[in-house]
Backbone:
């Protein structure tokens, strides 16, 4: 892992544990095992480090969704694997999950607008993927002819609900709940 990546990883850990104000360039450097001035060789300030952290967290989530889209699978299989991949990502990337929660609940004041815009872009990209998938499902006869806009929004709300449930339930319970939620969702839209 490059020094730059180590810096981002260390900063992510500190942010997840202590929040934006709780991480300093000196602490980041100490976590990596380098001197504080060395961090400035890669980032001009803490804000730039932080921006890199949350961009990676958002991109990681979207990548987990995008990788599930495969025309060789049924729409049902793709939707289910999208949900499961999003849950898997959150469990496997615990620090990134904590970062997303902190960003949603308590973004740093100076970055509120930027974070809101980036979340909006992420959600729009995710929405577009889902919209196309629902359209495809209607065209091939897997899904009832309904409004793809509404289906995409409903599915994003389902994903958000599972994300928040992950903060209260253990891994086994989450996967059990995911099975129930997806079965009910699919029963409501399939032909």
Residues:
């Amino acid at each position: 892992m490059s020094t730059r990546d180590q810096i981002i990883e260390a900063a992510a850990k500190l942010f997840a544990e202590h929040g934006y104000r709780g991480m300093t360039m000196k602490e980041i450097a100490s976590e990596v095992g380098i001197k504080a001035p060395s961090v400035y060789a890669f980032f001009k300030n803490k804000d730039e480090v932080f921006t890199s952290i949350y961009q990676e967290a958002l991109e990681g989530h979207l990548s987990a969704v995008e990788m599930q889209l495969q025309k060789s699978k049924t729409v049902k299989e793709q939707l289910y694997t999208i949900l499961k991949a999003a849950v898997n990502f959150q469990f496997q990337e615990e620090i990134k999950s904590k970062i997303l929660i902190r960003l949603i609940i308590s973004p740093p004041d100076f970055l509120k607008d930027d974070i809101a815009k980036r979340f909006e872009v992420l959600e729009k990209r995710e929405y577009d993927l889902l919209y196309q998938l629902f359209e495809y499902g209607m065209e091939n006869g897997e899904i009832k002819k309904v409004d793809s806009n509404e289906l995409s929004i409903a599915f994003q709300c389902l994903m958000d609900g599972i994300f928040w449930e992950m903060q209260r339930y253990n891994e086994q319970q989450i996967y059990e709940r995911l099975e129930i939620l997806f079965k009910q969702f699919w029963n409501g839209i399939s032909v």
